[in-house]
Amino acid sequence: MARTGTEDSPLATRRIGFNSLSDYALKTALSHIVTRGSLTVLTAAGRVLFFGDGSGEPVGVRFADVRAQWAFLIDADLRLGELYMDGRFIVEQGTLYDFVAMMLREAQNSTHPLVARLIDNARTRLRTFRHRNLPARSKRNVAHHYDLDAKLYDLFLDADRQYSCAYFEHSGQSLEEAQLAKKKHLAAKLLVQPGNSVLDIGCGWGGLALHLSTDAPGGRVLGITLSEEQLAYASKREHERGKEAAKVDFALQDYRSLEGRFDRIVSVGMFEHVGLASYGAFFSKCASLLNDDGVMVLHTIGCSATPGFTTPWLDKYIFPGGYIPALSEIVPQVERAGLAINDVEVLRLHYAWTLSHWRDRFMARWADAARLYDERFCRMWEYYLSTAEAAFRHEDLVVFQIQITKRNDIVPTTRDYLVEA
Fold first, then answer.
1. Class in CATH terms, 21-125
2. pTM value?
3. Which is it for the CA torsion 180, 185, 189, 191, positive or negative?
């Protein structure tokens, strides 16, 4: 049986009468959400509240002030992250990940407070208008995240700087092995051949483009990005290509300004930055760039449920202009562009495992990250990695790999070729 209430606890520093309206509201809200596990909350007034059935590893948190409690109750999607960054919401037992994972897991079986539901509904309805990412805005959005100090990414990514979902083929596989498996998996779906021209839209630090170049000797690979830091790093890596590899070029360019035709097009972890209002333009441009017998693979985070909205904290602090699409928002735009979907693979939990590796590595290098920025930045990054991992484990976030062509006779009719490749 779930239990909530007030009892003695090592977390309590003082005991006063239960006369705080915010304490009552907090107790009421969390008692409807947390029915399993063991959560202890120390309120700003000094009251100790217990939630859950006492199972599992205990988690203890504390609010530093009454306003922090109200902010959490009214708009946790935005304010919880800010409170954690500012030291007004403190995790005193367990980890931040333990808390958010408990909240997301338990929230699936509960009804959110009315005010939260109203805010969520408004954000969902406004999602199209909030994500009109024209070229200038797109570049600013990319710079906000990807033009951070390059040393930051070396703290938690693999050596190839793959900053997208890895592909875990078996239990216990290392992050490096799983990221290589991801690149091989994408190359197999693209059916890259010698002499092919390949376009990588949103090439990151160049790892995938360089990998694909080895499958297309005699061809050419073009990787484009809006991040000046990524461009500089990728350009330096061109010497890693073997003599038999395709020619590789990297460019600071928006996909909308591209001209020419390509045999293969791949986009990994970039579509989340396109913006819902620009989906039609994206696929129309891809259709004009793809040869008639070409193959395209789109790898993007997606939502396996109905369309929603971008978490406002993530939009404000980590990925401005970002949006996670439902499949129902992608498919119609592919069809309107005159393209055909050949295959859709849904990677479930792979990103949770990827993020778990990233979070562990980042936490182990916290002091190094703090020297690059500061403690508040580190708390922001921990919140980002923790909430993302919890969302991929307990909510409806997945990764879509969508194989696209212009005709239905371009790729093999079974998936056997993937195993062979």
1. alpha beta
2. 0.90
3. positive
